[in-house]
Specification:
Length: 127
């Protein structure tokens, strides 16, 4: 009975060590950003980054114009454009982070496929 308990305990410890290794191997934020610029969507990422930069310039410019406007109509005009540029920039950043997540999930699924294939190969040769 003790042999079975010890065997189960050893297997669980090995599994936990493997999970800890996988968690430690997760890339950081800058690596994930770099990975998003590779692959099939890299040109979209470049385009979105350019637009995000342009919206940042627009945000600064319209913010300045808003605070230096002399009439209420000008403040409303520049404030609306400033708000729209903030919103556009937020949506572009959201898309960027969703793309980073997609690339990360695809990487994890491919890793899982390789592990399943390796396990299947081991099981087919053990018979």
């Amino acid at each position: 009975m003790m042999d079975i308990d010890q065997h189960i305990k050893n297997e669980l410890e090995q599994e936990q060590a493997e999970l800890n290794r996988l968690i430690q191997d997760d890339p950081g934020l800058f690596t994930m950003v770099g990975n998003a610029y590779q692959g099939g969507m890299k040109w979209w990422m470049v385009l979105v980054s350019i637009f995000a930069f342009l919206f940042t310039i627009l945000l600064v410019w319209t913010g300045y114009e808003f605070f230096t406007a002399e009439t209420l109509e000008d403040q409303v005009f520049w404030g609306f454009i400033c708000f729209a540029s903030i919103f556009a920039q937020a949506m572009l950043k959201l898309w960027t982070f969703m793309e980073m997540n997609r690339v990360s999930v695809i990487r994890s699924v491919k890793h899982l496929e390789m592990e399943v294939e390796k396990l299947s190969h081991m099981l087919s040769h053990s018979k």
